């Protein structure tokens, strides 16, 4: 079974499933646009780029950012939302460290600033730990502020190029197979 057929079978249909959901019913006029569910190469590649970019947004804003950008650019909504899932509690620190280092590089601050150790959660004092995490984030300042969007744009561009190239390879392979089948008849 092809990926496109699998996606078509498992993707929600905007007219049926969205109208039946009480939470999404008010958004039905916006979510009913055909482009949000399209599996065209450019729309899917842009959705991957938006999802990868949005995945680096802080905490619970990732899917909201991806959804708003998908609505704005009229690209595949489910793909954009799914592509934010590469970030999770295990990947956040390495990604933000990479963003911090990229920000330092872009700002020309190679040896001037050292990333402080991440606050350890003791299991009891959640509020104090959240405050310490916020202080840790603010201490990193400009390198993180510059590095996160720069890394997100890099991931988005790489995702777009990879999807476009892979899609082209699949199309060429299918075209060659059809040509071989016709040639053998």
Account of the 3D structure:
The structure is a single chain. This protein folds into 2 domains: 32 residues, no CATH class; 152 residues, no CATH class. The chain is built from 8 helices and no strands. Helix 4 runs antiparallel to helix 5, helix 4 packs antiparallel against helix 8 and helix 7 packs across helix 8. The model has no long low-confidence stretch (mean pLDDT 85).
Uncertain residue segments: none
What is the average of the pLDDT values?
A: 85
Order of helices and strands: HHHHHHHH
Number of helices: 8
Shape, per Cα inertia axes: globular
Q: How helical, in percent, are the residues?
A: 55-70%
N-to-C CA distance: 24 Å
Strand content: under 5%
Structural class: mainly alpha
Task: Specify Rg, calculated over alpha carbons.
Answer: 21 Å
For this structure, the quaternary state is: single chain
* Number of separate domains: 2
Number of strands: 0
**Biggest sheet record:** none
């Amino acid at each position: 079974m092809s990926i496109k057929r699998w996606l078509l079978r498992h993707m929600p249909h905007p007219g049926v499933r969205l109208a039946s959901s009480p939470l999404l019913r008010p958004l039905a006029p916006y979510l009913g646009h055909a482009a949000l569910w399209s599996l065209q190469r450019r729309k899917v590649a842009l959705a991957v780029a938006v999802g990868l970019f949005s995945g680096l947004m802080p905490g619970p804003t990732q899917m909201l950012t991806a959804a708003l950008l998908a609505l704005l650019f009229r690209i595949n909504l489910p793909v954009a939302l799914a592509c934010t899932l590469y970030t999770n509690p295990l990947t956040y620190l390495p990604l933000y460290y990479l963003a911090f280092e990229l920000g330092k590089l872009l700002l020309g601050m190679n040896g001037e600033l050292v990333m402080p150790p991440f606050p350890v959660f003791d299991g009891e004092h959640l509020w104090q730990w959240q405050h310490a995490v916020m202080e840790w984030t603010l201490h990193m300042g400009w390198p993180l502020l510059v590095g996160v969007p720069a890394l997100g744009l890099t991931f988005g561009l790489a995702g777009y190029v990879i999807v476009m190239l892979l899609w082209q390879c699949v199309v060429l392979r299918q075209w060659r197979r059809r040509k071989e089948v016709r040639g053998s008849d």
